[in-house]
Design a protein that fits this description.
The chain is mostly helical. The protein has 14 helices and two strands; from the N terminus they run αββααααααααααααα. It has a two-stranded antiparallel ribbon with strand order 1-2.
């Protein structure tokens, strides 16, 4: 018994730094956000109890549900660039190893290391409707200029594509690491059985990458809207006509423009609940299947 207690105390000692970090930077702010969501507070004065008034204000505010819908649309646009596109690029580079592949990986990774604001400002020059690089290039092909960020029909797609540039480079590296860890015997067995390279890729390589794909898709669902925040803030400020006003920018608007900390916190709680519910349901289903089996 004493040995078991000693081992547990030793394990807790090793884990304590990580537990402290999680408490200070993750669970503490979550609890504080829930507390703020039931208060009236402008960030400076004395907080007052609000009960569910902040949540009722969200229901009455038409911007909130529309921002949630736009966030889901943005995530749907980003999902292929978080999974299918980097998987295809990673497999292509993996099959052609050498200095050229390393150079391509480095070029794809450049947007990841750029500061978000600097990246957004550079795209502002590229997409400028008057003399922007993209419109000037399209003009050489006889295509009329397009107001990419000023047209509600193209603004959200433009934000998604700009954001995708930072996602692809990182995920190509993650898929590359997964490819380097594949079982070579399964690949050799498939080739010995007469499978072509396309069949090996489709039937052997891709199925072994499903765990990584599921992880990256889950991360994209949880953080896709957050990744786009800097681009929305610099390039569109939620416009035009609210076309790019996703939930994360709306939280910023509530908290730092209207100084309504309580409503901003209530919106954050709703967002966490909506995004976390599918993951929680999946975990409960897995646990139920494990218990029944």
């Amino acid at each position: 018994m004493s040995k078991a207690v000693h081992r547990r105390s030793g394990a807790l000692g090793y884990l304590s730094p990580a537990l402290v970090v999680l408490t200070v930077w993750v669970y503490g702010p979550l609890v504080f956000t829930v507390v703020l969501s039931v208060l009236h507070w402008d960030g400076t004065g004395t907080p007052g109890f609000a009960g569910l008034d902040n949540y009722a204000s969200l229901v009455a505010d038409r911007q909130f549900p529309m921002a949630m819908v736009r966030t889901l649309l943005l995530v749907a646009c980003l999902l292929p660039f978080a999974t299918a596109v980097p998987m295809g690029l990673a497999i292509t580079l993996w099959k052609r190893p050498g200095r050229a592949a390393s150079t391509y990986r480095a070029l794809l990774f450049v947007p990841v290391v750029l500061a978000p604001i600097a990246n957004a400002v550079s795209w502002q020059f590229v997409l400028n409707p008057l003399g922007g690089v993209l419109n000037e290039t399209l003009g050489l092909l006889g295509i009329r200029p397009v107001n990419w960020l000023g047209d509600p029909r193209t603004a959200l797609v433009a934000i998604a594509l700009i954001t995708a540039g930072k996602i692809i480079g990182l995920n190509v590296l993650l898929y590359g690491a997964a490819l380097d860890g594949l079982d070579p015997q399964s690949l050799d067995a498939a080739r010995i059985d007469g499978a072509g390279e396309r069949q090996v890729t489709r039937l052997v390589v891709v199925p072994q990458l499903w765990p990584v794909t599921g992880l990256l898709a889950g991360i994209c669902v949880m953080l896709g809207g957050q990744w786009a925040f800097a681009n929305v803030s610099v390039l569109t400020q939620g416009g035009p006509d609210g076309a790019t006003d996703n939930i994360y920018y709306l939280l910023y608007t509530y908290g730092f423009m209207f100084f309504d900390t309580g409503q901003a916190s209530a919106a954050a709680v709703v967002l966490i609940t909506v995004l976390g519910a599918p993951l929680a349901a999946r975990r409960l289903c897995r646990r139920a299947v494990a218990v029944n089996s």
